[in-house]
Amino acid sequence: MIQGLAIGVLAAGLLLGAWTGIQAYRRRPTTDAQMVGAIVLEAALLVQTAIAIGKLVGGAELDESVTFVAYSIGILLPLPLGFYLARIERTRWGSLSLCFTAVVVAVMTLRLMQLWQAGSG
């Protein structure tokens, strides 16, 4: 797992969550720019997952490797769900659903970082 990429994903998740949360507070649906942001964040998550699992296959040892793999795969699910809900619900609730899933991604990234550091430290 690349520490800089993980921190970037964490920051991007929090930024997208704040951005869409403000949009929900203002009672507005998501914008196209926010949806593009969600797509870019999902692409970064795919890269992060591929690198992390590649390092595990390459011989990196972790104390909780099964939990790490489960989180690495599970982190790919919330944003597409939030994206879908934001697309079909063109109200403030769509913004709120994308906000929630972006924050979930940030929290899961933090947990992945903790698992990686505990196992490789």
Explain the overall architecture:
The radius of gyration is 15 Å and the shape is elongated. The chain is mostly helical and 121 residues long. The protein contains five helices and no strands. The protein has helices at 3-25, 32-57, 65-74, 78-88, 92-120. Helix 1 (3-25) packs antiparallel against helix 2 and helix 1 (3-25) runs antiparallel to helix 5 (92-120). It has a single domain, classed as Four Helix Bundle (Hemerythrin (Met), subunit A), CATH 1.20.120. The longest helix has 29 residues, at 92-120.
Shape: elongated
Question: Main beta sheet, described?
Answer: none
CATH arch. level architecture: Up-down Bundle
**CATH class annotation:** Mainly Alpha
- Which class best fits the helix and strand makeup? mainly alpha
β-strand percent reads: under 5%
The N- to C-terminal Cα distance equals 13 Å
Query: Helical amount among residues, as a percent range?
Result: over 70%
Question: Average pLDDT across residues?
Answer: 92
Topology of this protein?
Blueprint: H1 3-25, H2 32-57, H3 65-74, H4 78-88, H5 92-120
Helix pairs in contact: 1-2, 1-5, 2-3, 3-5, 4-5
Fill in the keyword field for this structure:
121 residues; mainly alpha; Four Helix Bundle (Hemerythrin (Met), subunit A); 5 helices; elongated
